[in-house]
Amino acid sequence: MNTIYFIKVSQSYPKVKLAYQGNINYSNRSMTKPTDDDLNQSIEEISAYRDRLKQALIENARKLQIPTHKINSSLEGNLELNHLKTIIEHLKSGHENN
Length: 98
Prior knowledge:
The protein is of the alpha+beta class. The chain has helices at 36-63, 68-76, 79-97; strands at 2-9, 16-24. It has one domain. Strand 1 and strand 2 (16-24) form a beta hairpin. The longest helix has 28 residues, at 36-63. It is elongated, with a radius of gyration of 16 Å.
């Protein structure tokens, strides 16, 4: 069994929401295994979103004249950025196993 993440990104409010996390049994014929193209596209889109989010956080922090070391510390501890990193790593490991 593999764990599948379904991601929902809202255009009006840029936040990724984990819509479903669970184990999927691929023996059920209604669910097909993701292709390499599907995984690559998901990785690219989530990575692009992560990069946009990170850049927006940096720009806002600079406007508020927050010191660089505090910006970096804030980025390292940002839950959403860390969550996106985990999802991307999971998708990449699924890509290697595919």
